[in-house]
Specification:
Elements lengths: L11 H19 L10 E4 L2 H4 L5 E3 L15 E3 L15 H13 L5 E5 L2 H7 L10 H7 L2 E4 L11 H8 L4 E4 L3 E6 L2 H22 L9 H5 L1 H8 L4 H16 L6
Parallel strand pairs: 5-6
Antiparallel strand pairs: 1-2, 1-4, 2-3, 4-7, 6-7
Helix pairs in contact: 1-10, 3-6, 4-7, 5-7, 7-10
Length: 255
Amino acid sequence: MNIASLKEVVSAEEWALRVDLAACYRLVALYGWSDLVFTHISAKLPESVTGGAHHFLINPYGLMFDEITASSLVKVDSQCNKVIDSPFPVNPAGFNIHSCIHDARPEAGCVLHTHSRAGVAVSAQKGGVLPISQQSTFVLASLAYHDYEGVALREDEKPRLTADLGDANFLMLRNHGLLTVGRTIADAFLSMYTFENTCRIQIDAQAGGELVQVDPRILQGMGEVMKTATAGQGANIAWPALLRKVERADPGYKH
């Protein structure tokens, strides 16, 4: 696919964000969380780059996640209008969930949404995420739920969705899928990695017999544990290694 490079067109800061977001799309594909061309990962451009405007990067609609490159990402405003001309279409309906979360959570640099098999399976369970693994304890420390209201096309769902999310970083969209909110792309990806594994472990464990749940006293202290275990730097520690993984698979994502 012949896509003109934007490296010399955009600022160095925007280009770095584009490379990280393209890598994130490739990683979602590598880990098997993608749903053909559907779902989205959005990244907010710093206002220092945009002059105070709210601009976002999102996938070109119709490309598989393992095809996305830094230059093919589309820059849009809050209404999903293109800010830079692009030959690729965008999906305003797909940006509906992302735009309201970015508006409600100004610190959110990235919003990542999946429709994975395990994630949707747990989202359909009445009990939601169960405290049965170490991974689940990290999720439960900052988890919210939003009930299914059909395909997310209606404007009137936005305030209900953001109210349900609150200040949580993990959102289970009932009967729909998973969503994470991160200060950075690395944060959102690492949170989704934990969320996805939580759901896969739960589905596997439920097939094997009676479950042992984590002591509630441990769950109560997870907020502090998360602050101290990696000094809040877990994503920064893992992200360079993840970039090397993408590089080994296909360095073309940086085009």
